[in-house]
Write a structure and sequence with these properties.
Layout (H helix, E strand, L loop, with lengths): L1 E9 L4 H9 L4 E6 L6 E7 L2 H10 L7 E8 L6
Antiparallel strand pairs: 1-3, 1-4, 2-3
Protein name: AsnC family transcriptional regulator
Organism: Thermococcus celer Vu 13 = JCM 8558
């Protein structure tokens, strides 16, 4: 299992619409509206990098109100 955090910038005034669209997606385990440079943060769980690619292509890129995303792939730093 792979975990990633996706930081989302939404066209002004469309935050609630995008939030509601994303809230029903099963790969999104947590979703938050936030203040600052980004409007929404997602915690996404997928099987592998190919599934993450599919999530970007099939979900995020189809939402016209999203201006930009930044994806951070989570890593465990166990020594």
């Amino acid at each position: 299992m792979m975990e990633a955090f996706v930081l989302v910038v939404v066209k002004p005034g469309n935050e609630e619409k995008v939030y509601n669209i994303l809230a029903g997606e099963e790969r999104i385990k947590e979703i938050y509206r936030v203040y600052g440079e980004y409007d929404i943060i997602l915690r996404v769980e997928v099987e592998n990098i190919h599934e993450l690619d599919r999530f970007h292509d099939e979900v995020l890129r189809k939402i016209r109100e999203i201006e930009m995303t930044e994806t951070l792939i989570a890593s465990s730093y166990r020594g």
